[in-house]
Amino acid sequence: xxxxxxxxxxxxxxxxxxxxxxxxxxxxxxxxAAHDGGYDAxxxxxxxxxxxxxxxxxxxxxxxxxxxxPRVTKLALAAFVAYVAWSYLSxxxxxxxxxxxxxxxxxxxxxxxxxxxxxxxxxPRPAFWILTAYALGIGVIGLLMLLRMADGGAVxxxxxxxxxxxxxxxxxxxxxxxxATLVSGALCVRKExxxxxxxxxxxxxxxxxxxxxxxxxRGWLFTLPLVLVCAxxxxxxxxxxxxxxxxxxxxxxxxxxxxxxxxxxxxxxxxAAPGFAAAAQTAGRTGLVIFAGLAIAGSLLAxxxxxxxxxxxxxxxxxxxxxxxxxxxxxxxxxxxxxATHGDPVGFVSRQWxxxxxxSTNASTGSYFAVVGSGRYDIWRVAMNxxxxxxxxxxxxxxxxxxxxxHRHTGEEPAWTHSIELRLLTQTGVVGLALFAAFMVLxxxxxxxxxxxxxxxxxxxxxxxMLPLIAWLIHGSIDWFWEIPALSGPALGFLAMAGGLAAxxxxxxxxxxxxxxxxxxxxxxxxxxxxxxxxxxxxxPYLSVREVxxxxxxxxxxxxxxxxxxxxxxxLNPLSSGPSRLAGSIALQNGNFSIAEQRFRQAIAREPGGxxxxxxxxxxxxxxxxxxxxxxxxxxxxxxxxxxxxxSQALAQVHSRHPLTTAQAFKLIVNxx
Length: 673
What we know:
By secondary structure, the chain is an all-alpha fold. Helix content is 73%, strand content 1%.
């Protein structure tokens, strides 16, 4: 038995230590998944600062120097940096600079994640185990949700009969568990993993797939075939994965009818019907039994694999077997789709397309998959019009919401374009789209090189690392996934990991020298300045967000304290209208009408297109006896949002003996939602 020399052991320790920042960043991805997908600014702002610190550790410590990166990776990183810089520049022409700043900071978070994984000196084994840890982490979240369902606590996980947890949005939860299914399925066949872990990965893949189905996302169902085709194209060990997929899909089919029973059992009321908890318990307990069975069977099969007869197949035979396995797996997936569409996939697609293009809706008592209609047609129409009106720079990062309210044909008020491509076009124009597209092409080029070159393990890891991007990009083309760090983080971070594996072909002696290199003074200075700038641009808005969070928690018990906290928040982030708008609402509801008008006027100055601030200022002016001022505020509010009952009612009553009160206006707003 050979033992590693002290020099080799030291090199391996350094190799694993260098991946620690990336491992911690992957841990943040799991944390985001468990906390509403990381969507809340309270969550992702501090996470961005944490990732920034990890990137700084790589820059001054064991990370790869930017100049040592492969040329295609350097170009990809430069394109991403240019896109984020353009995003910040859009603050200049954005109608809501505060939203543009926040959107740019979110883009900076994704750049930092990509940077951590791009600058990590990868070798296949640490990359493999980081992917495995991520898959296990999401699998544990899914298993805990099944346990909660089996224990009768499903109501908190669902909304309208559909799974909304853990991300807080049906479609993103479906995408999250689809990503976990793909990654777990790709890794569970690898012999590098202990048998019990392989069994767990197989079982988690089935749990994740069941939960993805429970979200009943029509976008997920439509895009799943293309996601699967692309996944098959990039993964290694296709034949083995196809065999494992059969077990996963059989497990899903064993519980399919019980999973689909949850939507009609909900009852389509504000609160879940009494039978829903029982139906969820049955589905949850069945899912747990399937999980246990697959975990045991998968572990036993993996443990016995070394004792299987060694059968050697030729290249042609292996390819035929792989194709057969893929066909069987896809056949099982098609069978599941037939059940989900009630045996009429053609009619299902036809009805969905008609509902989409004609903006019609209908109700379904059998499955949400059968519901027809959505607001995406109008959202995409307005998004394209916004791009055509501002083709070069777009509306400004995260500035779609106010523009949509002005040009909509529906009663909805979406904040996002529901498409990654349209988001780029509408909010950052042709320039933003070109920069991000260049980044994607270059990063994918580097990842594909890793998939085609290097050791067998490196190729397998590169393929598995590209799976989150596939689900994120394809499903995200018809949904708003960019805004959810639990989806964008793995997609972009693991893409950088895949590209970084191309450099793993360097010999160990060269790698050791690179890890030991001392950064130059110029590099340290540039890195320090960049880090300080990022700390300022992220830190001050984060402190502002924290003050807003504090104010929200104490606004009922201590309104004056809440107003003080919001004043601080407004100073920390002088571009954001949010603190002033919330302060105006609190003052309005507590009879401080003069303060309310001041705060709403401040919010209007920072975001002229926000109808609520104009309404609030009008209510405050009306309460102070300034009917003419109130009429002006209400008139502007109606020009922005004529469909809001509170606005039209306030304008109609402004000169009457009984103008609309704050309580009446807020009640109308709530009822209209």
